[in-house]
Amino acid sequence: MKKTAHLFKALSEEIRLRILALLQDGELCVCDLMAVLELPQSTVSRHLTYLRHAGLVEGERRGVWMYYRLLDSGDPLARDLLRLLAGHLPLFEIIRQDRQALADYLADKKHNRCNEGANR
Amino acid sequence: MKKTAHLFKALSEEIRLRILALLQDGELCVCDLMAVLELPQSTVSRHLTYLRHAGLVEGERRGVWMYYRLLDSGDPLARDLLRLLAGHLPLFEIIRQDRQALADYLADKKHNRCNEGANR
DNA sequence: TCTTTGTATCCGCATATGCGGATAAGGTCA
DNA sequence: TGACCTTATCCGCATATGCGGATACAAAGA
Q: What ipTM was assigned to the predicted interfaces of this complex?
């Protein structure tokens, strides 16, 4: 029960909802999120840790990078919530803007310092 | 978007989840909830106000009493969340205990000081 | 009007959480 | 190993939220 309350608390911050929305398009590493959300690294990392503890995302280290993705194998409530958010979040203007910013960022190879496909 | 975050914050406290579960069986007044949850009046009232501001419940005054019920006509996300909770909350032991306590309380007419059917 | 009952709000205090710079830790490559 | 990059955690501070007794407000009846 406390776990459930904690799950909702994880969803009760706008930044975390924006992160979840960005991850709906696929996994991202911390520096991708830093670039798109224009937030300091410690802030992004902290929120990702929060989401991970709530069972909403999982992280995988690949080389120097930590890739985060939505965790569909969580408990049933978490899974239902992620499904619900997938339907509702895209209706918000700021979410659409974030997705556009992500698309622009990914399209510009100069920025891809932390994507395995670039400069290395 | 901030409204959405606020909605989740309203669901991020165990007591508020318990209140919502009790209201799934029908409307209740503040003193009913005080009795079942064994919490002081100011605490119950404060949480109900929180839930009302989040658009999850509505209150109606009938005489001296304020009856609260789930608000199904809220925004789509709130409605979906209430539906989700209706399926998940009954799985928790404490919710079942609360519902039993409510049933006991309602069955005992001596306690019905704040129900219109009793002593008046 | 006065009293009683039920509810909402106020108050001071305690705790939880967020922030972002600073620092530590993990990983890669030369 | 040492330099460098990415990420996690620490730190002090600010704000948000919860608590529950005390008080104010609202409604009904004498």
A: 0.88
